[in-house]
Amino acid sequence: MKIKLKEIILLPNLISLFRLMLFIPFLYLLVNLDKKGYRNYVLILIFVAFISDLLDGYVARKKNMISEFGKIIDPLADKILVAIIIINLYLNNAIPIFYFWIVILRDAAILFGGIFVSNRIGKVLPSNLLGKFAVFSIGIFIIIILLQIEKNSVVYTLILDISCFLCIASFIGYIIRAIDVLTWKKNENIP
């Protein structure tokens, strides 16, 4: 699988690259989260990242600009931003340890599994709707944390449980899809 320069400069990929670069202000704001107003700036950046995630996919589909590079950079940008936020919130004791590990291990396994599958089939396994719901639920939980919703409230518990369930379900779904694709590719080569 080769990435061509003309793929990188496609509008949806530039939007994804913009989202990836948001890690810089995210890092600064999260390190200084206790400063007045910084939580609001993080919430604004989350909204900007969310809109850019919707926009890059919409433009790619609408303008027929789907590319292998886009299939890599879009979920990579999401994973990096989520990791930066989750790690920072964990270090500040703002999220439960089990949630930290569910999100980090899921994303790491999908990232390295994706590399393995891509090397085997020569293409990137694109994200699916269940994976997008999982990332969305992580974002909602992060917002709940930033809004400082009480940890023993029904809203906090419900969002946490839904997010954990979706993270685990999307990981299992990814494994099933990867096995199917690898099995199909293997059988395709049989004379």
Short description:
The protein is mostly helical and 191 residues long. The protein is 79% helix and 0% strand.
Describe this structure in words.
The protein has one domain: Four Helix Bundle (Hemerythrin (Met), subunit A) (Up-down Bundle), CATH 1.20.120. 79% of the residues lie in helices and 0% in strands. With 191 residues, it is mostly helical. The protein contains 8 helices and no strands.
CATH class category name: Mainly Alpha
Number of domains: 1
| CATH architectural type | Up-down Bundle
Order of helices and strands: HHHHHHHH
**Overall spatial form:** globular
N- to C-terminal separation? Answer: 24 Å
**Helix/strand/pairing class, anyone?**
mainly alpha
Residues in helices, as a percent range: over 70%
What Rg do the Cα atoms give?
18 Å
Average pLDDT score? 90
Number of DSSP-assigned strands:
0
Query: What summary fits the major beta sheet?
Result: none
SSE map:
Elements: H1 5-8, H2 11-21, H3 23-31, H4 38-62, H5 68-91, H6 97-121, H7 129-146, H8 154-188
Helix pairs in contact: 2-4, 2-5, 3-4, 3-5, 5-6, 5-7, 6-8, 7-8
